Amino acid sequence: xxxxxxxxxxxxxxxxxxxxxxxxxxxxxxxxxxxxxxxxxxxxxxxxxxxxxxxxxxxxxxxxxxxxxxxxxxxxxxxxxxxxxxxxxxxxxxxxxxxxxxxxxxxxxxxxxxxxxxxxxxxxxxxxxxxxxxxxxxxxxxxxxxxxxxxxxxxxxxxxxxxxxxxxxxxxxxxxxxxxxxxxxxxxxxxxxxxxxxxxxxxxx
Length: 205
Prior knowledge:
- This protein is of the alpha+beta class.
- The protein has helices at residues 28-64, 68-92, 114-134, 137-147, 188-197; strands at residues 8-9, 15-22, 96-103, 107-112, 150-154, 160-164, 169-173, 178-182, 203-204.
């Protein structure tokens, strides 16, 4: 299988392509933000619960657990803060996320285009500061996500690969990092098969 003209193979043997994610139509990045928040919240809850149990046993544990009403309010605030941060980032980025991918037999590089990356760094600083002032983990998390402009995934370290065709997305997950690979529909099968063939330790789901 060969790729279309959208994917160029250089003299160094590496494949390169650019993809433009429409942030108002493709919410894969937003769901990834919420996933990170959920993991952080669970870790914080377990830590607080452990402190309460160690200090006063079961009674201390009960005191640390919020009521259903308070829990729903916290969840609502985090979801709202995350959404506001995401749409602020999207608006300043021109409602699109432009990314360049470079791929060879050993690794895949996910890199924001330089012009947009510069914007993302400014947005990140503003968003993180706003989150700290408001003590909002949702806004802080969105700002930290915006600051990340380059990600390198080593194929030998990939643990799971998942195709999400409706979003033109291939999720390539290592133990502690998750790379989101976007590719045009006509090249989806080529990139997906290439990645699967070069990730010997990955589970394909």
